[in-house]
Design brief:
Blueprint lengths: L1 H7 L14 E3 L4 E6 L8 E5 L4 E5 L25 H13 L5 E4 L8 H23 L6 H4 L9 H21 L2 E6 L2 E6 L1
Parallel strand pairs: 4-5
Antiparallel strand pairs: 1-2, 2-3, 3-4, 6-7
Length: 192
């Protein structure tokens, strides 16, 4: 757990929720809160229509496929956020915005958010095709599909890998390319 805390930062003691559509006034502009679940359940962006920009947090980064974090809901599997499905819906909302600049939480500001979203969708399509090919060898669990390097695996690395695999498999379920079957007390995935 200490390893995870080092990477993720210190605990925040007090926070106020931001609500979808809420307007926040800054000294020189006003921003509208957009709930953009996918990478995490609570991720928000701040849209500044007057300046045609978005403070986008970790939502969209050029050359990076955001990892859909695995988050179980109140009801366990049934209450779980389907993170890549949520990300896809959030992407459609951001794609519709007229923006000149995205200001991400990491890296440099960038233009042409639609080109970055198109690149990301192509990367996700390649990943889905790769997983589908691996499933042709027979039903597999998410753990069996996770590509984790040899040797001792750090917990955070395993968590990130499983988050990405499960998110992709759920997206493939939604698209109708795989189905989930329960065998021996665990879920396995196979081509639909």
């Amino acid at each position: 757990m200490e390893e995870t805390n080092e990477l993720l930062g210190e605990r925040v003691e007090a926070a106020e929720p931001l609500l979808e559509g809420e307007r926040i006034a800054f000294a020189r502009f006003e921003a509208e809160v957009m709930h953009l679940p996918g990478h995490t359940a609570g991720l928000v962006g701040l849209h500044v229509p007057a300046h045609r920009l978005m403070l986008s947090s970790d939502f969209l980064l050029p050359g990076v496929t955001p990892n859909p974090m695995l988050e179980l809901g109140e009801g366990g599997e049934e209450g779980k956020l389907r993170s890549l499905d949520a990300y896809f819906e959030s992407s459609r909302r951001v794609e519709a915005l007229e923006l000149d600049w995205m200001l991400p939480g990491h890296g440099e500001p960038f233009a042409d958010h639609r080109a970055v979203l198109a690149w990301l969708e192509r990367a996700r399509a390649r990943r889905r095709a790769e997983l589908l090919e691996r499933l042709r060898g027979g039903p597999r669990t998410a753990f069996e599909l996770a590509r984790v390097g040899g040797g001792r695996v750090r917990r955070l690395q395993l968590f990130m890998s499983l988050s990405e695999i499960i998110g992709t498999l759920e997206r493939m379920e939604t698209l109708g390319t795989v189905r989930r079957v329960e065998r021996e007390g665990c879920y396995r995935f196979e081509p639909a």
